[in-house]
Amino acid sequence: MSGHDPAERQRVSVATFRSMKKQGRKIVMVTAYDYPSASIADSVGVDSILVGDSYGMVVLGYDNTIPVTMDELLPACRAVRRGATHPLLIGDMPFMSFQASKTEAVRNAGRFVKDGGMQAIKVEGGRDVSRIVKAIVRAGIPVLGHIGVTPQTATIQGGYKIQGRTADSAADLIEDAASLEEAGAFGIVLEMVTEEVAEIVTERVSVPTIGIGSGRFCDGQVLVLHDIIGLYPRFTPRFAKRYADAAGLLKQSIEKYASEVRAGTFPEEQNVFRMEEDQRQQLNARRKT
Ligand code: KIV
Fold it and tell me: How far is ligand 1, taken at its centre, from the CA of residue 276, in Å?
């Protein structure tokens, strides 16, 4: 992390990412989708916040990331922007916001910056999207690439299958990473890539790699917030680490609140507002007449 005292910290930029790789300092990225979690992530000094399309699953309850739209993601970006002033803020281009044409891709990337307050965007795909990456970068918007498992096209990949298990798959990933770097991406997310291949990609590219389920040798790590805090009831991927049981805490708190309301023990004295004594007397006198 780039310094814990908020007063001392400067806003993290794409250039900070580059110099962190050079200096061998690990980059910490986390997803967030709202004001409170973004401000907490900022206060502990994360380097970057990704408003991921995982929002569609962990917040909106879709089965996968395909349905989430630009119009759903932009308000989340604005809330994160209001909460976080130091980390590099990255908006995740949702499915079908960039595939149809370069023009549409540039326009939607621009919406993340102009309407969402993001400083960069992320696009899933390797060589197949490098011309789109180039167009967005040319328009002046920094792009984070994303290869390995790419959930938006998981059906074509045959599901969420670990990538880089074979020499051919490794060669593909290395080529994908090189083409994204060549297109101007400032970093590359590696999702569910074997540790060996993630290490080779990390050595081969000059831009930072950010791993998720891709082992220990990436330049940084990203996890979905709800996996870290234990707030996604459907499953926690094996590569994620759960640091808390937020779902359990929420359940306990709501249960306690419900039972106190039913028992009449909430609200308590300190939760109620009272009239001034003279006003109460006046009211009582009026009620008697
Ligand atoms: O949408 C997301 O949260 C992501 C990360 C898992 C990299 O793409």
Answer: 54
pTM over 0.90: yes
For residue 210, the ligand 1 atom closest to its alpha carbon is 7
- Would you kindly state where each structural domain of the chain is located, as residue ranges? 6-244, 249-288
Which atom of ligand 1 is closest in space to residue 124's alpha carbon? 8
User: Cα torsion for 190, 192, 195, 198, to the nearest 10°?
Assistant: -20
What is the residue type of 261?
V
Contact residues of ligand 1, CB 6 A cut-off: 31, 50, 52-54, 92, 189, 191, 212, 222, 224
* Architecture per CATH, 6-244: Alpha-Beta Barrel (3.20)
Whether 175 is a known active-site residue: answer no
Residues 6+ apart with CB under 8 A from 6: 42, 43, 45, 86
Structure confidence by residue, pLDDT tens digits, 264-280: 999 999 999 999 999 99
Give the residue whose CA is nearest to atom 1 of ligand 1: 52
Pairing outcome for strands 143-148 and 187-191: parallel
